[in-house]
């Protein structure tokens, strides 16, 4: 009997699987998805109290209120902002808008998983540029460019490695690529970064028609459940992306909470300070446990476990899960000796390190 078959590219794909836990333990400590440690801005929660007024109405296709708030907060041009149902949606529609089936798109070895996924869904060929010491490498990216290359995806800082490419190197990358190649610069974690040699890419996207910077409300702003992201690029690119994006993909609740969140500078500053304090605490604790880790400028870090002992990464993940703590396995990246853990709130961080100690002493 014949069955309807999906496109060849889709059949090969695996479904994205987050670790939100199967455990029966209530109050799981979820350090597996790089979410905001401090919840969301109370202003955003307050704004949602008025949400039910217009439930029967479609949201605006482009919210002027939200693009104005973003433009004011980051001193950007309103007409160059595109909103999306999470930056995931923007990654997908960029691939669908620009990639033909004989095109290639470059992504980095341990780059964000949605890049190869989006490229495959669009039906094009993904090309991997090797990292060096878990860091995206500009020369390796450039060496993969050929006549078929249409897009370069770069998450900066990158998830799951937590590493970054310096401003100087990003500029060198952009200067070295032909103007018909689109540089997708995903700065999802940029708000956490305090390093001087990092930049969020908005000035590059401002000055060039072949760059799109992506941002999200899911991390620092703590609105992951509402699915809200945005991009900054030329009006020409936005016009084409809007043909592909769902007409009403950004819902009214996301818009209302998003406006309040982006204006709440106190919450944003508090979250950045919290992250810096606890990231440095984590690093000290891991050192004292003799565990190797990948230094990170984000709100998560990868920890390495010995492969040839019962204290391996898989057992660590299982042990922590049995205590109600969820972390992210790195097996899907081929990094089976690592787990990725997000910085949580004070209580969660203390419990995590206590249980990690218990695991290692066991
Ligand atoms: C690098 C990177 N880009 C994009 C996203 C997706 O964010 P959103 O929740 O806005 O879809 C994530 C989420 O983990 C991420 O790590």
| Percent helix range | 25-40%
Work out the radius of gyration. Answer: 21 Å
Regions with pLDDT < 50 over 5+ consecutive residues?
Answer: none
Based on Cα principal axes, name the global outline.
Answer: globular
**How many runs of DSSP E, i.e. beta strands?**
13
CATH class of the largest domain: Alpha Beta
How many domains comprise the coordinates?
A: 2
Largest sheet: 7 strands, mixed
Order of helices and strands: HEHHEHEHEHEHEHEEHHHEEHEEEH
Which hetero ligands occur in this complex?
Answer: pyridoxal-5'-phosphate
Q: Strand order across the biggest sheet? A: 2-8-7-6-5-3-4
Class from secondary-structure proportions: alpha/beta
The H-level CATH homologous superfamily of the largest domain, spelled out, is Type I PLP-dependent aspartate aminotransferase-like (Major domain)
| CATH fold field value of the largest domain | Aspartate Aminotransferase, domain 2
């Amino acid at each position: 009997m014949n069955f309807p078959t999906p496109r060849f590219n889709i059949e090969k794909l695996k479904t994205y699987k987050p670790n939100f836990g199967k455990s029966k333990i209530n109050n799981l400590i979820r350090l597996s998805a790089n979410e905001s440690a401090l919840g969301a801005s109370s202003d955003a929660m307050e704004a949602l109290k008025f949400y039910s007024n217009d439930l029967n109405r479609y949201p605006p296709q482009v919210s002027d209120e939200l693009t104005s708030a973003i433009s004011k907060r980051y001193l950007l041009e309103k007409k160059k902002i595109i909103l999306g149902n999470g930056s995931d949606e923007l990654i997908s529609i960029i691939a669908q808008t620009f990639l033909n089936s004989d095109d290639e798109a470059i992504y980095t070895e341990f780059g964000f998983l949605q890049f190869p996924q989006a490229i495959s869904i669009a039906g094009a060929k993904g090309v991997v540029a090797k990292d060096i010491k878990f860091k995206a490498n500009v020369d390796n990216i450039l060496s993969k460019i050929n006549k078929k290359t249409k897009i370069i995806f770069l998450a900066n800082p990158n998830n799951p490695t937590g590493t970054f490419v310096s401003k100087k190197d990003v500029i060198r990358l952009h200067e070295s690529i032909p103007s018909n190649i689109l540089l997708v610069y995903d700065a999802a974690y940029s708000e956490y970064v305090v390093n001087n040699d990092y930049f969020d890419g908005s000035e590059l996207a401002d000055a060039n028609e072949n760059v799109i910077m992506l941002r999200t409300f899911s991390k620092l702003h703590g609105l992951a459940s509402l699915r809200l992201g945005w991009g900054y690029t030329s009006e020409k690119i936005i016009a084409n992306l809007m043909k592909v994006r769902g007409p009403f993909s950004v819902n009214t609740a996301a818009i209302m909470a998003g406006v309040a969140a982006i204006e709440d500078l106190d919450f944003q500053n508090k979250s950045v300070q919290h992250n810096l304090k606890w990231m440095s605490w984590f690093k000290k604790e891991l050192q004292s446990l003799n565990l190797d880790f990948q230094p990170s400028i984000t709100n998560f870090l990868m920890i390495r476990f010995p492969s040839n002992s019962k204290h391996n990464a898989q057992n660590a993940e299982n042990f922590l899960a049995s205590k109600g703590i969820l972390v992210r396995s790195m097996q899907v990246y081929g990094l089976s000796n690592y787990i990725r853990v997000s910085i949580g709130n004070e209580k969660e961080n203390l419990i995590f390190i206590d249980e990690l100690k218990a695991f290692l002493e066991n």
